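User: quick one, fold this
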Amino acid sequence: MKLSAIIIAKDSEDLIEECLKSVRFCDEIILVDAGSKDKTNEIGRQNGARIIKGTEGDFAKQRNIGLENARGEWVLYIDTDERVSVELQKEILRAVSKNQFVGYRLKRKNFYLGNNPWPKIEKLERLFRKENLENWYGSLHETAKVKGEIGDLNGLILHYTHRDLSSMLQKTIIWSETEAKLRYDTNHPKIVTWRLIRVTMTGFFDSYITQGGWKAGTMGLIESIYQGYSIFITYARLWEMQNKV
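Assistant:
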């Protein structure tokens, strides 16, 4: 078996089917489930996925569970709100046949609030020869530890994130607490007024100016203000933790 797709999921019945369809070119599809209570697993089985029980919260652990259960010589990591473009599918198949590198960075194009494209295209390490991927580490912003040289592919992962304001706000409520706790556990400097203002403005500036959000019109402004707000909530939670009696 040449290529295994690994998808981490929880309660993703509204997203998972399109994701699964985009990785049908792989020899195996593994769905690492973190305790879904909806039809995620049922849809996964209907689309040929092998369901593996995961763990809630820690993304690195879940990615490692997928790695341990993969039967392919190569592993491709895709999230439920992502789709592998046809162009990228062809590139991946060529890459795993040549074995020129031990892994590849893939380009990811983000779409916010529907089908509105974001100007900046990211690069993420998502495709690896299994024997060269030692593990993933980092409980929230997970990173791959790889032995060998990483190459680049040009085809796109299409990322449909921040689909509406309600889901965006819900995401901030959930993950800001985890982010704040990680900073608290590493003895982050005391949160004071100037620091709270600085991180909020930095979040907005990075999104709107550095990433070119201003090019995306009203959507770009909304997304950039949200990024500043999301960081503000994370550090406000950290302030709360530091000042809890």
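User: anything notable?
Assistant: Helices lie at 16-21, 40-46, 59-69, 86-98, 165-185, 193-210, 217-242.
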